[in-house]
Amino acid sequence: MELNLEETYYQAILAKDSAYEGTFITAVKTTGIFCRPTCRARKPKRENVTFFKNTKDAILSGYRPCKVCNPLERLDETPEFIKTLLNELAADPSIKFKDWDLRQRGIQPSQIRRWFLKNHGMTFQAYQRAFRINSAFKKIQQGEPVTSVAFDSGFESLSGFGDSFKAIFGSSPRNSKHSAIIDLTRLETPLGTMFACATAEGICLLEFSDRKMLETELKAIAKYLNATILQGENRHFDSLRTQLTEYFEGKRTDFSLQIHPLGTDFQQAVWTALQEIPYGTTSTYRRQAARLNRTEAVRAVGNANGMNRISILIPCHRVVGTDGSLTGYGGGLWRKKWLLEHEQKHLTTK
Ligand SMILES: [Zn+2]
């Protein structure tokens, strides 16, 4: 956003100018909270404020809604039952409202899905996921290990994490001082916010923050290395930031980064083969299976492809259907399309 516009917005929030309602969202870096322009809460310093076009962008960049001005509500047009759900979530980010829970309350899941899509550009389920991740990230920024935060944020109900956690760390998540550390950071890209994880050996995760599987993936790498995930710096993050920026500017066609993929021997072989697909080109599961001399294992190759947790660096986006169709992508098909077009464009200008 250009500086002049930001200054105008900042003056508007100082004046609580209601003419700006609905035109922008204020977010405060120090608290991780976003507000409407007219929020009554104490005004943050200019250098701590950033602005977004809409609530969706603020949520996907890791911010949580303010409890004072309730920026998720549309003035005078938020149904009472949605206000109630939002308040309950704000009070306890670990609550998960599934379709069944909504129906128990006499709410049609499609009703709330439509309202969220119309007003915030995302489904209620996607909002809940982002809210859990954002709440958890804020806590670990304040020094709590992800693995204990995971409990508080409702992660444990996915795939019996509670039991596996106990098996690895003992009964108390807080007594995990002896385990290894995986560093976690968040970075902004032209395709949205991403999370990266790294060990001393290299980058072990790079995913878009709205990916459905993100929670499961974080747990999987913690379990794999018997490690605790903490927000922190790692020497591999510096080169990752630099090289990703160059990639998105079309100035870099391959990466020279240390990566630390975590998986079975077969998965590792599949991921290595993915890295042999040249920039700007595509392959198919069938061709990847042939590359591994495993022509019978097309489906298994596809599955291992889907298990890749290091997006872009291990370019699983370069695999398409035999007929050229895009097929699935964890980060969303629109991103896969964007990445392939981006690479093609910069390949031809080389
Ligand atoms: Zn507010």
Report on the architecture of this protein.
- The structure is a single chain.
- This protein has 350 residues and is an alpha/beta fold.
- The protein folds into 4 domains: 3-65, DNA Methylphosphotriester Repair Domain, CATH 3.40.10.10; 80-179, Arc Repressor Mutant, subunit A, CATH 1.10.10; 185-243, no CATH class; 265-347, Winged helix-like DNA-binding domain superfamily/Winged helix DNA-binding domain (Arc Repressor Mutant, subunit A), CATH 1.10.10.10.
- Helices cover 43% and strands 12% of the residues.
- It has 14 helices and 8 strands.
- The model is unreliable at 156-178 (pLDDT under 50).
- The structure holds zinc ion.
- Zinc ion (ZN) binds next to loops.
Task: Give a concise summary.
With 350 residues, the chain is α/β, with parallel strands linked by helices. It has helices at residues 3-14, 55-60, 80-91, 99-104, 109-120, 124-141, 146-152, 161-169, 214-224, 235-248, 265-274, 285-291, 298-306, 333-348; strands at 25-28, 33-35, 49-52, 64-65, 180-189, 192-198, 203-208, 227-231.
